Amino acid sequence: MALINRIAVFSAAWLWLLASPFPLRAQDAEQTEQSGCEIGVNCAANSVAAEEEEPPVDPKLSKDFVLVALADSLGEDRAAVKAIVRATPNIRIADSLAQSEYMIARYPDFPDNLILVPYAFYQWKVAGAQSPTEEVPDISESLANLFARFDGDGGVYQLPPVVGRLDDSSIASGLSAEIQKTLWSRRILGGPIPRLRDDVTTEIFGPRRSICKTVDNVKQCKRPYWTVVRNEGPDPAHIAILRLDQAFAGTDNLVRLKDSTPLQLNPGDARSVTDDEFETSPDVYKRYIVTIASDQPIDLSLFNPRNSPLPRIPENWTVTATAVPQEKKAYRVGGGFTVANLATPWQVQLYSTDSSAASLLAAGKINWQLHEKTHRCGGSLIELNVVLTAAHCIANAPFATPDKRQTVFKFRRVKLGTKDLTRGGTTFAIDAVIVKKGYVPGGNHHDIALLRIKPDASTIARAAAIRQPVSIASRPPAPTTIVSAFGWGVMQEAFGRNTRISSTGAPQRNPAELQTGDLQILDQTLCKARAGYGHVTKLMLCAVTPRNSQAAREGRHVFTCLGDSGGPIMGSEGGRRVQVGVVSWAVGCGVNDNPSVSANVAAYSAWINENKTKFETGKSIER
To answer: Where are the domains of the chain?
Structure first.
């Protein structure tokens, strides 16, 4: 929000081992059919049974195949996954977890998706091994725990990659693509590769100084590096320049230049490349500039994913990998919002269980992070097992018809106990839904709903400790009252319905960290007089940037936007914090300080108190 809601490189050690728019109505992409994690089923168990029928395999690291183990969490799908693995080139099944290089398991938050977890990561982060060569027992620690501790020692760790879904044919190709990244990394970094063109040299300079620019009134700075490739020999050389990004979670990637056509360098010529000339890639632990030199033209299609054994590096190639100096992360200065550092144990996230698809409207190619693809709405815990949210979050498209509304239990889950969507938190299944009678999909009236949640077997032990409900207001806040909004919504002002694009034409991003901002309640009459707000009723609250706030003095607006929907507007009552609103809709996002509208919780307090005990398990009903 501005207020905006912020809605895996190997490490050196792993290398050692390897050698809606506002109104917020159309924010959900149409989902494909999938099954969610059933209530009471342990979807995160990760113990691995030995494949006793498999002959022993030499555990020595190979440049032709990798060894994988299958997690017990695959359950009844284990045999099917095993058959896929056996038919996939470059992969062999290990005869034990300790021998494996990777483990195939379910993604805890998205149980129909399979992930590829490096055994080294499993050793250190779950089993607590003291070195990368220490074997660990086949334990049954939860992957959910592993993910919660993802940033335990402060390093840059990205989530293990999703390689496919159990209900489609994507697993084989996904596995092949990820495994081939590892094998190409071993071949490029592990050598030896004949050096036929020692006269082609690579130098990397920087980072030396920060380069800053202002985008959407936000100052963005980074410290870039640049690479110079020279032909110091007497003969022409064909060259290609790539970047090898390595993630601890095994997501190596050869990143090409935006204009990746190999070129010819004549004697004495040089080619200079800056970081910005490479295709977009996420933050990683370590990077290498890979230079390919040859006397013959270079065909980079060699590195394309394939459903066959990897080819050898051509004998007429000289491949050099040069480590890039540690980069400084880009940082942002400005904005009318702050990170919510105070305790928010009642804050809830509603997310999509489909981690592979999101119809994100953006100008250009944007590297959307997983939390941005899956985040849908906010919410608040008002009882130990009851969540208050907006009706449009679970009763609008793709749940807009009575039959589709029942699929919300497959396509939506709840996360509680985190302020950073990239780590931590405990996930819950949705057990039952009650939508306020009179809500019309796509409309703004009666935009309020209740969810009953239930922990899975893997999270039930932690669930009781983190659930701390908030009270709901008994009376609405008076005009001019200062209230606070919380969420992971986008943070730049936007016109109309396409709030994924800011008012300056830039693509909007959802922050990972929970944001908060102060708003001031606007008198109903004044709100109704605003263009587009004539249908505001007493069942709604309007709020704008506080008149005497620093944001107002600096000409900045505070507002709720795409991703904040369903989240809480908090006020006070009798000296205690209470929830006064549920983020619902607006005209655009903050342009001209257009009001942010929420459902008036006090006006619905009788309905909430009456219906919070009338759920029907497995059903989405209207009351």
So the answer is: 12-188, 192-331
Closest by CA to 419, choosing from 545, 512, 548, 308, is 512
Cβ burial, residue 223 (10 Å; 0-12/13-18/19+): middle
Q: Which residues contact 575 (CB under 8 A, 6 or more apart)?
A: none
Dump pLDDT digits (tens) for 331-343: 332 234 567 766 7
Residue 396 near residue 408, CB atoms below 8 Å: no
Summarize pLDDT for 556-590 with one digit per residue, the tens: 889 999 899 999 999 999 889 999 999 999 998 88
DSSP assignment string, 364-398: S-----HHHHHEEEEEEEEETTEEEE-THHHHSTT
301 Cα distance to chain centroid: 30
Burial of 39 (0-12, 13-18, 19+ CB in 10 A): middle
- For 573, counting Cβ atoms within 10 Å of its Cβ (0-12 exposed, 13-18 middle, 19+ buried), the class is middle
Residue 384: how many CB atoms within 10 A of its CB? 11
**Distance from C-alpha of 277 to C-alpha of 280, rounded to nearest angstrom:** 9
- For residues 165 and 356, the answer to whether their CB atoms sit within 8 Å is yes
Class of domain 192-331: mainly beta
The answer to whether residues 115 and 105 touch, using CB atoms and an 8 Å cutoff, is: yes
Residue entry with tokens 């004949």 = 194
Decide: pTM greater than 0.90: no
C-alpha to C-alpha distance for 490 and 342, rounded to whole angstroms: 20
Q: What is the 3-state secondary structure (H, E, C) of 463-487?
A: HHHHCCCCEECCCCCCCCCEEEEEE
- Token pair 């889950």 in the structure block, residue: 413
Tell whether the torsion through CA atoms of 287, 288, 289 and 290 is positive or negative: negative
What is the rounded CA–CA span in Å between residue 573 and residue 473?
A: 7
What would the mean pLDDT of 137-150 be, rounded to a whole number? Answer: 46
Closest CA to 448 of 457, 461, 437, 462: 437
- Is the separation of the CB atoms in 379 and 389 below 8 Å? yes
How many angstroms separate the CA atoms of 410 and 433, rounded? 13
The answer to whether the beta carbons of residues 482 and 620 sit under 8 Å apart is no
The tally of CA atoms less than 13 A away on the side-chain side of residue 152 is 11
192 residue type, one letter: P
Structure confidence at residue 323 as a pLDDT band (50, 70, 90): confident
Neighbouring residues of 7: CB distance < 8 A, sequence distance ≥ 6: 349, 371, 372, 375, 376, 421, 487, 488, 489, 490, 510, 511, 562, 563
Percent over 90 (pLDDT), the chain: 31
Decide: 488 and 515 in contact? Cβ < 8 Å: yes
SS (H, E, C) 246-298: ECCCCCCEEEEECCCCCEEECCCCEEEEEHHHECCCCCCCEEEEEEEEECCCC
Give bridge partners of residue 452 from the DSSP assignment.
Answer: 386, 432
Prior bond of 511 cis (ω within 30°): no
Residue 346 CB coordination number (10 Å)? 23
- Give dist(CA 540, CA 23) in Å, integer: 14
